[in-house]
Write a structure and sequence with these properties.
heterodimer, A: seven-stranded mixed sheet, 9 strands, B: mainly alpha, 58% helix, 0% strand
């Protein structure tokens, strides 16, 4: 039996610090603290759950749920991020694809995956030394229709079952959701942040009531948290993997200049 | 939301896969527009339109952001990512 040793969630972008240096620093320090806590769990595998930004997926070939199944990845390098290769874990990823398929949940395996900032910004912060094998698990909310909260929660449940029942006995698995919170991007409302909704969302998770979030609809999330806010489905996936776990908000900053509610959480696992 | 005009998705997906061609947006956009058969009536919007103009054409919001960055008129200011990662 493998073990989920840690579960975390954070925004997967950074913005220009110029003119808001103190706020940017609070975000970055919060992210680094999240990373410190994640490394303390001594994971052997890190599952980064996030949405791609159509750098690896085509609009005409929807893959709402997908997973990287390689042993090595060359990052896409958007936002000026490094393209230095990172280690994957093909065995873990392919095993999960089979396990999920047997339970009626399809995970696509995109060819030539080059993780973009959705994976690489969180990873660059939590594992700067590149010591942990990464499995990119995509909840691709860039599609319409997007993966739903109910489906995302189910994916998390399956991930927990896979880790605890099937994966190698010495596997120590950390989960990290990337994305959110509320943001409107590439649309006329860009720059809006719904801090009240963001804090409500994190409060629900912090009290171990994430299952209730699986009953949200994407239509309501779009209204309350914007098109980018649909990325909270990655957070719901993590919550589905650690149901009833309480959590702690490590940082929150509403930053209209970055068009994002910037947030990070740590779940109390084990 | 409007239906995205012919060729735009294919054009932007080409530029995602072929970064070297992005310079054509500023230097010779007609080459790209011709190659991907972009309708004449939307070319000016692609050349000089803002976020909301592009969104009204029905372009996917993520593609709107990419197009504006490659065109040199991003909605958010550029910054060096090493501001953060150089001290990670």
């Amino acid at each position: 039996m493998g073990t989920i040793v840690g579960a975390f969630a954070m925004s997967h972008v950074l913005g220009s610090p110029f003119g808001l240096e103190e706020q940017a620093e609070r975000v970055f320090c919060g992210m680094r603290e999240l990373g410190r806590r994640l490394r303390e769990t001594r994971p052997t595998v890190l599952v980064v759950i996030t949405s791609d930004h159509l750098n690896n997926f085509k609009l005409g070939e929807p893959m709402p749920f997908a997973i990287g199944t390689a042993d090595i990845y060359t990052p896409y390098g958007d936002m000026g991020l490094s393209t230095e290769p990172i280690a994957g874990n093909a065995g873990f990823a392919n095993g999960f694809v089979t396990f999920a398929a047997q339970r009626g949940f399809a995970l696509a395996k995109p060819p030539r995956l080059r993780p973009d900032h959705g994976v690489m910004i969180p990873l660059g912060i939590v594992d700067p030394a590149r010591e942990i094998a990464v499995v990119p698990l995509y909840v691709n909310t860039v599609y319409t229709p997007a993966p739903t909260p109910e489906q995302s929660w189910r994916l998390g449940e399956l991930l927990r079952e896979y880790v605890t029942n099937v994966s190698s006995g010495d596997e120590r698995v950390a989960l990290l959701a990337g994305g959110g919170l509320s943001h409107w991007l590439g649309v006329p409302e860009e720059g809006r942040v719904n801090e009240a909704w963001d804090r409500w969302f994190m409060d629900v998770l912090a009290h171990g009531q994430g299952q209730g979030l699986s009953q949200l609809t994407n239509e309501q999330i779009l209204i309350d948290a914007g098109n980018g806010g649909l990325e909270v489905n990655a957070w719901i996936t993590v919550a589905g993997a650690v149901p009833d776990a309480t959590g702690e908000c490590l940082f929150y900053e509403a930053i209209p200049a970055w068009a994002s509610g910037m947030a990070g959480m740590s779940f109390n696992v084990g | 939301m409007a239906v995205v005009p012919r060729g735009i998705n294919t054009l932007i997906e080409h530029l995602i896969d072929t970064p070297a061609d992005r310079a054509l947006i500023r230097n010779d956009p007609e080459v790209l527009f011709d190659r991907f058969e972009i309708p004449a009536e939307v070319r000016e919007t692609l050349r000089s339109g803002g976020r909301d103009d592009l969104y009204r054409l029905g372009i996917h919001p993520n593609f709107v952001i990419k197009w504006l960055i490659w065109s040199g008129r991003p909605t958010m200011p550029f910054f060096p990512i090493d501001y953060y990662f150089a001290r990670r």
